[in-house]
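Minutes, structural biology subgroup

Action item carried over from last meeting: produce the structure token record for PadR family transcriptional regulator (Levilactobacillus spicheri). EB confirmed the sequence was re-checked against the source entry. Recorded below for completeness.
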Amino acid sequence: MAIQVPTELLDGCVLGVLSRQDYYGYALTQEVRQHLPISESTLYPVLRRLKKNGWLTTYDEAYQGRNRRYYRLTRTGQQQLATIQTEWTHFKTAMSGLLEGNQDE
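Output recorded by EB:
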């Protein structure tokens, strides 16, 4: 995919994945990669920013002698996801109208 994903949509993608369950960083990257071409070096700054905004929280769990940092959606993160989902619906409708040549959209 050659289209760059805007920051707010990438935020929404991460928040959407985390709305289903908690993930540690690598597993979250793999989950998002199933749908978008994204690298860990792109995702980790997004996670830090989302945590700084209060939309995510973290906790560590031991795994094979090491700690994995898990990310969890907060209540304000859920609210932000709902906002992004609403904005996405409007954006998607407008873009479909333009790209498909529909004048009524």
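Discussion: The chain has a mean pLDDT of 91.
Next step: EB to file the record with the rest of the batch.
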